[in-house]
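Field log, afternoon session.

UNIT: design team B
ACTIVITY: writing a sequence onto a fixed backbone
BACKBONE:
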């Protein structure tokens, strides 16, 4: 499952860690029903538009999986075939996506605080941009260190470069290597600038998410459920 990964190796502020097997991120179309069974998912957050879902439906899994379709979209003509997107365009795109991502993240935190929703998979077509923004806000709300969030974001490029355009998913079918390369770039500095802007304007990410209805009680309860004080062997090996 290229670019599907557990976020268990990320550190919180008080020498705590994101629990293993709780939060996953990745591209939606590659998740076959057998893969869903392996991950034992309870919830899938699908960020794709209706057109994207019609072209590459998410394969069905166990009936216990709750699929929440929460389309996110921002105008990005610079992603058209023949174009060579640059990091500044991605950053502008992420900033445009922030209000949509804020709504999704608050809903996710409420589900996590209530219990029973995990493991959760956040996905979009490539598991890169929309997924990256949502995961970054969610992890920052849990108190995960900025350096670890940016490191995880940068990991996507390393994975997708190894996979190549023919095997990365339907979104990259037919792209030349020259077109594919800038579309999978994930510079840590891009995510750092995005989150720095959010926190510069709102004090902290929790303050920004408060605009979308997040309460301190929900944030604290979600953190209690998602973070663990002693890393498991899996987490130590991944760190």
């Amino acid at each position: 499952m290229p670019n599907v990964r557990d976020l268990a190796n990320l550190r919180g502020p008080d020498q705590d860690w994101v629990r293993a097997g709780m939060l996953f991120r990745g591209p939606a179309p590659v998740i076959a029903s057998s893969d869903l069974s392996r991950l034992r998912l309870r919830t899938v957050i699908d960020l794709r538009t209706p057109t994207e879902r019609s072209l590459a439906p998410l394969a069905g899994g166990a009936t216990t999986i709750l699929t929440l379709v929460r389309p996110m979209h921002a105008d990005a003509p610079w992603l058209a075939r023949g174009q060579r997107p640059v990091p500044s365009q991605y950053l502008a795109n992420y900033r445009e996506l922030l209000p949509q991502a804020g709504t999704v993240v608050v809903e996710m935190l409420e589900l996590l605080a209530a219990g029973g929703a995990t493991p959760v998979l956040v996905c979009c077509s490539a598991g890169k941009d929309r997924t990256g923004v949502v995961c970054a806000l969610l992890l920052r709300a849990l108190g995960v260190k900025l350096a670890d969030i940016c490191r995880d974001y940068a990991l996507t490029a390393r994975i997708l470069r190894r996979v190549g355009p023919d095997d990365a998913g339907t979104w990259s079918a037919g792209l030349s290597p020259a077109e594919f390369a800038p579309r999978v770039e994930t510079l840590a500095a891009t995510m750092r600038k995005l989150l720095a802007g959010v926190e510069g304007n709102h004090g902290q990410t929790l303050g920004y998410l408060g605009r979308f209805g997040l309460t301190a009680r929900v944030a604290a309860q979600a953190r209690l459920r998602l973070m663990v004080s002693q890393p498991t062997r899996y987490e130590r090996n991944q760190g």
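LOG NOTE: The beta strands are 5-6, 17-18, 23-27, 43-46, 66-69, 120-124, 227-228.
NEXT ACTIVITY: expression trials, pending approval
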